[in-house]
TrEMBL record:
<dbReference type="GO" id="GO:0016491">
    <property type="term" value="F:oxidoreductase activity"/>
</dbReference>
<dbReference type="InterPro" id="IPR027443">
    <property type="entry name" value="IPNS-like_sf"/>
</dbReference>
<dbReference type="InterPro" id="IPR026992">
    <property type="entry name" value="DIOX_N"/>
</dbReference>
<keyword id="KW-0408">Iron</keyword>
<keyword id="KW-0479">Metal-binding</keyword>
<keyword id="KW-0560">Oxidoreductase</keyword>
<dbReference type="InterPro" id="IPR050231">
    <property type="entry name" value="Iron_ascorbate_oxido_reductase"/>
</dbReference>
<dbReference type="InterPro" id="IPR044861">
    <property type="entry name" value="IPNS-like_FE2OG_OXY"/>
</dbReference>
<comment type="similarity">
    <text>Belongs to the iron/ascorbate-dependent oxidoreductase family.</text>
</comment>
<feature type="domain" description="Fe2OG dioxygenase">
    <location>
        <begin position="183"/>
        <end position="287"/>
    </location>
</feature>
<dbReference type="GO" id="GO:0046872">
    <property type="term" value="F:metal ion binding"/>
</dbReference>
<dbReference type="Pfam" id="PF03171">
    <property type="entry name" value="2OG-FeII_Oxy"/>
</dbReference>
<dbReference type="InterPro" id="IPR005123">
    <property type="entry name" value="Oxoglu/Fe-dep_dioxygenase_dom"/>
</dbReference>
<protein>
    <recommendedName>
        <fullName>Fe2OG dioxygenase domain-containing protein</fullName>
    </recommendedName>
</protein>
<dbReference type="Pfam" id="PF14226">
    <property type="entry name" value="DIOX_N"/>
</dbReference>
Amino acid sequence: MTVIDLPIIDFGAYLDPSSTAEQRQAIDHAIDKACRQFGVFHLINHGIPQELCNKVNARARQFFDLSFEEKRKHRVGSDIRGYWCPTDTSNAHNIPCEGIAFYPPVNYCSNGLSPDIDPASPEARLPTTPDVLGGQNSWPSDEFRAQIEEYLEHILPLKDRLFSSIAASLGLGDASQKRMHKTAPHVSFNGYKALTKAQMEEGEHNLAAHIDPGCIAILTQDSDSVSLQIQDKDGKWCGVKPIPGSFIINIGGALSRLTGGQYVDVLHRVIHRSEKPRISIVVFINPLFDITIEPFTECAEKADPAKIVLKTYGEFYLNQDSE
Ligand SMILES: O=C(O)CCC(=O)C(=O)O
Ligand SMILES: [Fe+2]
């Protein structure tokens, strides 16, 4: 497996009040170039304390170490919230990937209502009302929830800085920036076990090839195995070597559409071979469901017609198979 040399972007100047405009512009330029060329890059000196990432990782490991019966209690009848794994048997030894994910109520801040809820009814805006994504989040414990909230308090300002950088490179005016910033965080904890020899021979993957649907993913992972793979421009699969303490930032379908296809939405998958189970923690930054993902005005001229989608993110997300 070829290991790809992705850009390593040092974000330090963005956090240093004494940095110069030129230093920040150099970062903007490097991020913009990486988004156009690869749709993915490593981010170092991002300001998120390593200790916090370690605590979140430990929390995830503690959850995945629970019995299958315990984990299963957190299924909520949604593809994107609660516990998920590819099988529902109690013989859970060979599960190559499992996860628990959290998505804010989409009806609370946008129009993603479940079709059987009357939009005019008082309960339509309650965070507990079922929405198009199915059942609501299931938190393993109050501590678990508090840990994720603490993590988001750090990750969301980082997202704001990354978006500012991207907006500067794309020359976005106020209206486009406002649209770009209307997002919700989808948090996903992924646990991977080594594929067995038989699974390898059958060509199984821990996580099948996909493009993330939203704007960006901010991913931290165990740093000792090359398990994440991306497809390069020639269609070749390449391993991504983790850099301790870095985040991997990758571009999803919505941001690619918003830029008229100028930014690459990277196809990726996971094949984990190492004996030690692997954990990745991803915060996906997704547009709110009622935000349209047609290209920013400033990107319209350069837009690739094949990448123009005149839909809201909700419509795009829920009809991905037909894209
Ligand atoms: O675990 C990884 O490295 C990738 C996870 C991923 O692609 C996803 O959750 O969408
Ligand atoms: Fe992904």
